[in-house]
């Protein structure tokens, strides 16, 4: 297996490219966000699935519920750059969304 090291600029471009593949996610500085319309059961199931993945990646996304909307924030929102792990978490969250919303 060959490892590739990314310079700061190349890493940023790589993460930006990866984010374009995550439909529904928006970037705000150094965090990414997603809002979903889910019922209470779907929200609970999604939250549990995200917790398992986030624990494995040692990350802490913010998941909140307002009315029928589930809001997810991944990243720091401050000067800390978005990491590969956080983009990977967003991709895994998308997998979890599909799992809880498909009949």
From TrEMBL:
Gene3D superfamilies, A to Z: Transcriptional coactivator/pterin dehydratase
Catalytic function, reaction form: (4aS,6R)-4a-hydroxy-L-erythro-5,6,7,8-tetrahydrobiopterin = (6R)-L-erythro-6,7-dihydrobiopterin + H2O
Residues annotated as signal peptide: none
InterPro entries tied to this protein: PCD_sf (IPR036428), Pterin_deHydtase (IPR001533)
Annotated GO MF terms: 4-alpha-hydroxytetrahydrobiopterin dehydratase activity
Gene Ontology biological process terms in this record: tetrahydrobiopterin biosynthetic process
One Pfam family hit: Pterin_4a
Keyword check for Heme: no
UniProt key word Lyase: yes
Enzyme Commission number(s) from the entry: 4.2.1.96
Protein keywords: Lyase
Lineage: superkingdom: Bacteria
Family membership noted in the UniProt record: Belongs to the pterin-4-alpha-carbinolamine dehydratase family.
Name of the protein in question: Putative pterin-4-alpha-carbinolamine dehydratase
Organism: Micromonospora eburnea
Lineage per the UniProt record: Bacteria, Bacillati, Actinomycetota, Actinomycetes, Micromonosporales
């Amino acid at each position: 297996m060959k490892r590739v090291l990314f310079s700061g600029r190349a890493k940023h471009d790589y993460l930006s490219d990866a984010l374009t593949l995550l439909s529904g996610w928006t970037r705000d500085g150094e965090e990414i966000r997603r809002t979903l319309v889910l019922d209470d059961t779907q929200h609970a199931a999604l939250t549990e699935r995200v917790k398992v993945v986030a624990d494995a990646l040692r990350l802490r996304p913010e998941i909140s519920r307002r009315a029928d909307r589930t809001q997810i924030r991944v990243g720091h929102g401050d000067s800390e750059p978005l990491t590969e792990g956080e983009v990977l978490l967003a991709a895994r969250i998308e997998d979890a969304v599909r799992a809880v919303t498909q009949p």
